[in-house]
């Protein structure tokens, strides 16, 4: 009996060791909370990778910028010190300049348009542009359409944002556009934004409802305006060498898992967009739903001319007119 137990114990221990050796652990992270559109994206991805590889790959998930902000995380993935990250395109232009065409304000009519472009040939070709920079871009996902919040005044038209000090992402296209509107731009990594708003270092910031809600910006911002001024894509990024090490079947499993993550992510953004205004009003925010978007588009004409020069009018039109 005792011997039997011993043998059983030893077998179990060996089994555990063998199991551990056969499992590769990889990290993925986000700057927002687990209970968010980004949280469901990476949680779903992790679950699907485990399922599709029979548990041979375990994805460890980290939230709230605990492994660093988006730029730092993309850098870590490029260097290979971290296998994976899920990020907005905020800091992406520093790594893949071509991708910044997607960050142009009022480029997409609505989420359906943006999703169709990203899932179609334009978006899929763009994913390939990450490869020479050391990344395998697994799939596009999203933050949604960005809206402005602040503590100074209600925003309804471009004149209202003139002179507002706003945190922006570290993104040259965004910065150029907001400067053209007369905003005093303060680029900053996302994990610092809550405190900056709380301490009044900046008057406001802009983000989709999904981010505003999950980051609890309602606690530190009075006004919300549904400016919807720019679509904010997100992306699943993996270190290219790590991806190349996978068998072809496992590579496919990672890509499919990311696509499942995107489905869950988009569904959550839709849900947040549907319930967000009522929720944030309930939290005490004063919400302007009737923003003069046409006036914002007009105010950005100068910036648009610059973008056309930089990215090519035909390339921008191809996205605008995509059906
Ligand atoms: O990805 O930096 C930002 O404002 C992003 O939208 C946020 O980190 C979510």
Using brief descriptors, characterize the structure shown:
20% strand, 5-stranded mixed beta sheet, D-Maltodextrin-Binding Protein, domain 2, two-stranded parallel sheet, binds (2R,3R)-2,3,4-trihydroxybutanoic acid, alpha/beta, single chain, 323 residues
How would you characterize the overall build of this protein?
- This protein has 323 residues and is of the alpha/beta class.
- It has one domain: 3-Layer(aba) Sandwich (D-Maltodextrin-Binding Protein, domain 2), CATH 3.40.190.170.
- Helices cover 47% and strands 20% of the residues.
- The chain has helices at 2-22, 37-52, 70-79, 111-119, 121-128, 172-180, 193-199, 209-214, 240-245, 248-282, 293-299, 301-311, 313-320; strands at residues 24-29, 57-62, 84-88, 135-150, 165-168, 184-187, 204-207, 223-239, 286-288.
- Strands 3, 4, 7, 8 and 9 form a five-stranded mixed beta sheet that branches.
- Helix 2 runs antiparallel to helix 10 (248-282).
- It starts with a helix and ends with a helix.
- The chain binds (2R,3R)-2,3,4-trihydroxybutanoic acid.
Helical percent range?
A: 40-55%
Largest sheet: 5 strands, mixed
Approximate strand percentage: 15-25%
Query: Number of domains in the coordinates?
Result: 1
Q: Flag low-confidence runs.
A: 7-15
CATH topology (level 3) name: D-Maltodextrin-Binding Protein, domain 2
DSSP summary: helix tally = 13
Q: How would you name the CATH homologous superfamily?
A: Bacterial extracellular solute-binding protein, family 7
Mean pLDDT level: 95
CATH-defined architecture = 3-Layer(aba) Sandwich
Structural class: alpha/beta
Helix and strand succession?
A: HEHEHEHHEEHEHEHEHHEHHH
Shape: globular
Computed CA radius of gyration, to the nearest angstrom? 22 Å
- DSSP, total strands: 9
Quick one: CATH class? Alpha Beta
* C-alpha termini separation: 72 Å
Q: What is bound: which ligands?
A: (2R,3R)-2,3,4-trihydroxybutanoic acid
């Amino acid at each position: 009996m005792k011997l039997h137990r011993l043998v059983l114990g030893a077998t179990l221990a060996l089994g555990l060791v063998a199991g551990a050796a056969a499992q590769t652990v990889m990290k993925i992270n986000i700057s927002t909370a687990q209970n968010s559109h980004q949280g469901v994206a990476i949680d779903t991805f992790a679950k699907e990778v485990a399922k599709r590889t029979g548990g041979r790959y375990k994805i460890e998930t980290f939230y709230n910028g605990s492994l660093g902000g988006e730029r730092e995380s993309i850098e870590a993935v490029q260097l290979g010190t971290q296998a994976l990250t899920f990020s907005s395109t905020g800091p992406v232009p520093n790594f893949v300049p071509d991708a910044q065409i997607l960050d142009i304000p009022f480029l997409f009519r609505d989420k359906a348009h943006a999703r169709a472009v990203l899932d179609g040939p334009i978006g899929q070709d763009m994913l390939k542009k990450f490869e020479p920079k050391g990344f395998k871009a697994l799939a596009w996902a999203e933050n949604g359409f960005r809206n402005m919040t602040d503590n100074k005044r209600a925003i309804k038209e471009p004149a209202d944002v003139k002179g507002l000090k706003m945190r922006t992402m570290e993104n040259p296209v965004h910065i150029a556009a907001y400067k053209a509107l007369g905003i005093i731009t303060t680029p900053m990594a996302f994990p610092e934004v809550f405190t900056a708003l709380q301490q009044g270092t900046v008057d406001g910031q802009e983000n989709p409802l999904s981010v505003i809600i999950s980051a609890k910006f309602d606690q530190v911002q009075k006004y919300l305006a549904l400016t919807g001024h720019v679509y904010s894509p997100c992306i699943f990024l993996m270190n290219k060498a790590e991806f190349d090490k996978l068998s072809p079947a496992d590579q496919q499993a990672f890509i499919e898992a990311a696509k499942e993550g995107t489905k869950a992510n988009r569904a959550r953004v839709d849900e947040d967009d549907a319930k967000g205004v009522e929720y944030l009003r309930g939290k005490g925010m004063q919400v302007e739903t009737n923003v003069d978007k046409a006036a914002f588009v007009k105010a950005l004409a100068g910036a648009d001319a610059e973008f056309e020069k930089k990215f090519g009018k035909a390339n921008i039109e191809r996205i605008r007119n995509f059906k």
